[in-house]
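Hi support team,

I've been running sequence recovery on a batch of backbones for a student project. Most finish fine, but this one hangs at about 90% for roughly twenty minutes before it completes. I'm not sure whether the input is malformed or the queue is just slow. I've pasted the structure tokens below so you can try to reproduce it. Let me know if you need the job ID as well.

Thanks,
M.K.
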């Protein structure tokens, strides 16, 4: 599933985009994995609790405790899903996404070696960073590859590997 910085309209914007894609791809599994944490997940993912008006979201007196609990529940949800079905979270322009989503992706990146879960992200070198602490945490778990421009031949090979042998694919 994928998202990018354009989904980061507000806190948890990228997480909501990833969750929507996950729930579209595997609704039963996504909802089953969320069952035990709905009272927390609903803070970030209202789409999970929209059809359950009787559900009360867990209340917190401290905003920091709420944030920690919600991030832990989100991480747990993605990990639980990945135990049932391998999961790839792909995010373009990680440097420009909302802070809670960046923090979650960093947490998930640290889980990647223990579960069938992978997090791929692009970061534009030298671009302003919206969540420096989360990005630093992400980088601590990530392997880094420096992309270079592809030659016309490499571009054609890449496109052919994706689209097959189609007409008008000459570089």
């Amino acid at each position: 599933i994928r998202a990018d910085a354009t989904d980061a309209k507000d806190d948890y914007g990228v997480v909501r985009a990833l969750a929507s894609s996950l729930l579209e791809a595997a609704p039963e599994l996504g909802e089953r994995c969320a069952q035990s944490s709905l009272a927390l997940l609903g803070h970030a993912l209202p789409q999970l609790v929209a059809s359950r008006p009787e559900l009360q979201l867990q209340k917190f007196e401290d905003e920091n405790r709420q944030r920690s609990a919600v991030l832990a529940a989100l991480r747990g949800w993605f990990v639980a899903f990945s135990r049932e079905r391998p999961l790839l979270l792909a995010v373009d322009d990680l440097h420009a996404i909302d802070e809670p989503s960046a923090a979650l992706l960093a947490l998930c990146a640290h889980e990647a070696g223990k579960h069938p879960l992978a997090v791929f992200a692009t970061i534009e070198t030298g671009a302003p960073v919206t969540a420096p602490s989360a990005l630093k945490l992400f980088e601590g778990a990530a392997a880094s590859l420096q992309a270079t421009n592809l030659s016309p031949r490499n571009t054609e090979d890449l496109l052919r590997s994706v689209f097959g042998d189609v007409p008008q694919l000459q570089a």
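--
Follow-up from support: It reproduced on our side and the slowdown came from queue contention, not your input. The longest strand covers residues 87-92. No action needed from you.
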